[in-house]
Amino acid sequence: FYGAVISPESLTSYKALPRCLLSVGASGTIDWMVDDVQEHVLQETLAQKGCIDVDVITLPAGEFLLPGFIDTHTHAPQLPNLGSGQQHELLDWLSDVTFPMEAKFSDVEFARRTYESVVRRVINCGTTTCCYYGSLHLESTKVLADIVHASGQRAFVGKCNMDRNCPDYYVEASAEVSINETKQLISHIRSLASRPNAQSSSRPHLVQPILTPRFAISCTPELLTSLGKMASSDPSLHIQTHISENKAEIAFTKELFPDAPHYAGVYDSFGLLRPNTILAHAVHLEDTELELIAKRKAGISHCPTSNFNLSSGVAPIGVYLDRGIKVGLGTDVSGGFSPSILTCIQNASIASKILAIQAGTHGTSPTQFSNRQLPVATLLYLATLGGAEVCHIDKTVGSLAPGMSFDALLVNTRSIAGNPGLWSPDTDTPGKGKEALDGLLERFLFCGDDRNISRVYVEGRFIGGNNYRANN
Ligand code: GUN
Ligand code: FE
To answer: Which part of the chain is the Amidohydrolase-related domain (predicted)?
Structure first.
């Protein structure tokens, strides 16, 4: 690729390289990048790198490469419910809206049809790595993993563990059944490594299993004990769950686990808090819970669209960042009403501004995130590298740099097929400098949508986006 590249560097900075030459190798990783290559030395630079007869994709003004988005928390079987039942708060929403829909995934053919469109839609939103909760059903969740594998998306897929406090029509028969089926799902997903996917058979597989105790309320101590044992016998196994989302949920959790010091302490007492644990929501954490989460190096999935939509509250993400806790973004479909991380970025910004308004602080701060609006650089970080840290894969993805996997988006801010672009050719044709790129990035994050994502790449493979949609 020859053109503009934007990539996060830290919570407060990103690289904006207007004239970058970036080379993706046969293995799908970035071989090298040369910054600031003037057009007249392009061929010479390629020759110096030993590149003869290579395809160079040249990006016109208004287009740039960005690392793919990482959705650290979503529910695949809830996508058909997007935008419905949003008058409820969490516990009523689960029983009146969510469990009835998830129960339909006992029908494997229904699951297949639905998950095909779910995965396609999530990829086209620019999500290159996704943490999916399936339903509680083993067979349907295997199908979800198969579809993700065939699509070429990077993902973690888990089936919900839930053996109590759920309706009779949607609950696992026992802790033993739950564990047994979880083990079967893990073996199935690990066996996908040897199965060819859409593009190639030679790559290590991109889909990994993840333990998914739905939340403390839905799990008996017996089930959590067995999940903790599975986790301790396999430190590489990821874990995802919900934490401190809603006040009524927290009160019920404390009733169920009276001996635990707090909500985080419940998970910790079963060995489920560790560096590859993803904790979704974390809206109402106590100070001592923050200490514990930081100590265990677990990550938080910030789900602001959902936290607003289910009236759960505003998570103080700035406080978590100041304490060095890993944070990524989650769409939490269908608590959240959009499968796009762009919507999540916009709501993360608004959430931070609400806390800043309440605290009477103005603007961003170079040294502190608590009670401050989050800068663009921080929002970009949370959507990419922060998500990779939460998923414990930041050595592989989350930024565009030599040695990283080419999981990337080709963003087009120009007008597309009759839709206006993100800048007006009459007033502000984008220049080729860094400042122009800063402006384009901010407009894309706040005003862009899936139409502006022309191509989605995972490990160098073109797997989705607006151009893909047009040709498939
Ligand atoms: N807590 C337990 N299950 C769920 C769920 O499906 N969505 C959300 N937002 N919170 C939960
Ligand atoms: Fe959720």
So the answer is: 64-461
Ligand 1 atom with the shortest distance to the CA of 310: 9
Q: pLDDT tens digits, residue range 191-205?
A: 998 776 655 544 557
Q: How far is the CA of 242 from the centre of ligand 1 (A)?
A: 7
| ipTM surpassing 0.90 | yes
Any atom of ligand 1 within 6 Å of the Cβ of 242:
yes
The closest ligand to the CA of 98 turns out to be: 1
Q: Is 7 exposed, middle or buried (0-12, 13-18, 19+ CB in 10 A)?
A: buried
Q: Ligand 2 centre from 446 Cα, in Å?
A: 24
Domains 2-67+398-471 and 69-390 agree in fold = no
What is the 362 CA–ligand 2 centroid distance (Å)?
A: 31
Rounded-to-integer distance, Cα 430 and Cα 417, Å: 19
446 CB contacts (<8 Å, ≥6 apart)?
A: 345, 346, 349
Longest dimension (CA), the chain: 71
CATH architecture of 69-390: Alpha-Beta Barrel (3.20)
| Residue 274 neighbours by CB under 8 Å, 6+ apart | 231, 235, 239, 296, 297, 298
Using the atom order of ligand 1, give the atom closest to the CA of residue 215: 2
C-alpha distances in Å from residue 268, one per residue of 90, 125, 277, 296: 23, 34, 11, 9
Instruction: At 232, list the tokens.
Output: 């301790």
Instruction: Please state whether beta strands 277-281 and 299-302 pair in parallel, antiparallel, or not at all (unpaired).
Output: parallel
**Spatial separation of the C-alpha atoms in residues 36 and 311, rounded to whole Å:** 47
CATH topology of domain 2-67+398-471: Urease, subunit C; domain 1 (2.30.40)
Question: Ligand 2 centre from 310 Cα, in Å?
Answer: 11
Write the pLDDT tens digit of every residue in 302-312: 999 999 999 99
Rounded Cα distance between 116 and 55, Å, is: 32
Alpha helices in 152-238 (DSSP H): 175-191, 221-233
Domains of the chain by residue range: 2-67+398-471, 69-390
Structure tokens at 208: 């990994």
Sign of the alpha-carbon torsion through 131, 136, 141, 144: negative
Q: Among 219-233, 240-254, 429-443, which is the least confidently predicted range?
A: 429-443
Distance (Å, whole) CA 95 – CA 87: 13
CA of 303 to the centre of ligand 2 (A): 8
73 C-beta closer than 6 A to ligand 1 = no
Chain Cα centroid distance, residue 398: 11
| Nearest ligand by distance to the CA of 301 | 2
C-beta of 75 in contact with ligand 1 (< 6 A): yes
> How are beta strands 408-412 and 63-67 bridged, if at all?
antiparallel
